[in-house]
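3.2 Worked example (two chains)
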Amino acid sequence: MNKRRFSVAMLALALSAGGMVSAQAQESWPSRPITIMGGFPNGSGVDIYARKLAEPLGRALGVTVVVDNRSGAGGNIASDYVAKARPDGYTLLLATAGTHAINASLYRSLPFDPFRDVTHIALLGDVPNVMTVSPERRPQFSTCRAFIGAARAKPGGLNYASTGNGASTHLAGVQFAQAAGIDIVHVPYRGQPGAQTALLGGDVDVFFNQSGPTIGAVKQGQVRALAVLTPTRLAALPDVPTVAEACGLPAFDSSTWYGILAPPGLPAPIQERLNREIVKIINEPDFKNWLVETQGISPPTATTPAEFRAIHERDIARWREVVQKSGATVD
């Protein structure tokens, strides 16, 4: 009996000590560099945002914040890595509606659950897609209606690039083809740089690219923006018409979101600290101006982890309907 009591007492002491260590770890967090994982290559919209956020977040937390991109499988490689990482606040993910809402129904199977295997930290903004062509390689596509007319005249004869199977740039093309009643061929690439190079080289006809990497290319004359795939124009591209104006496709919206996620089980104090610092950074005038004027990203109106979680859950259902209607699947 005494031995049993001693064992129980020692177990209780061990559990108590473990709790004290955990609490001390939370109090001392962060004490070493933090990594923001990204699922797409350098130069992608995700990479651009992650690097812009890393510096001020590092200053706010007093540690170095580094960006590590592990591209492939529509962002699933990085997503799976973070889903299985230790929930200690040192590994984060710059996720998208593509990686954590679209992929939930687009892929036949995933090694992680896009909704349950995360801790929601903060939304980073709404990201529109822009329909672009090469003015040098495809001068005949001076307008969206010209592109649609050519596609209808030759079903399956035109193609579009994407940043990978399951990415928002892929499903934007699916949505557009469905709404316009055309048949265009999907050509996936490993990230934005590869898809953009294919567009400029004439290997593909059109690229429904995210606004961030597109704005600079439009202003430099490398690409022609035929339409913004949202109901309203972008402040960064005020002369580019909406998809309703340019293509005659009303009520069309192909915007997605960026957000910061962490592994499941992240302690609430770390979650709250990260949320507080990130929301503060996003609302700084210089950062907000960078978002709107150079990236075409609308700052989020939802600021709490709970609001982010609700939007995430709603978007999984919304994109499931789009995917089912399109018939698109990825093994």
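3.2.1 Second chain
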Amino acid sequence: MCKTRFLAVLGSFLAVASTCFSQSSEQPDAVFHVEGMPVEVAEVMAHQLEAWNAADLVGFMKGYWESDSLRFVGASGATRGHRATLERYIKGYPDAQAMGKLTFVNQEWISLGEEAGWLLGSWHLDKEGLEDAQGMYTLLWRKLKGRWVIVADHSS
């Protein structure tokens, strides 16, 4: 009787756990979404995470505004423009080992209207064989031509 009850409880737990995991992979907003944040922003971040973890910096950069006016600020200074930001990433992360495995934790969305907002969060790179890296970000998002993109990134 106890064994049957245990198996029933275990089965219920596994069913709930598999539902949670499948929702996370199918619904990126469940992983990245914070109160008030547009679902589309979470979807962009899910694509960025997938690209980064596949060592695809060009794909990762699709979340950024393709403009010479894009701003990126990091520990080594400020960069202006999409191409320059991509080149900065390529220089800093020349291969998959240097890129590691990225995770994001979004903490707060500060709405600036229906088509803009600040996103505060943290990032972590798990680098096998190298020292891990982590920091914080503040991302300025705008909805331009019907698409949410990062127009300014301050990561440290």
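3.3 Remarks
Confidence is low (pLDDT under 50) at residues 1-29.
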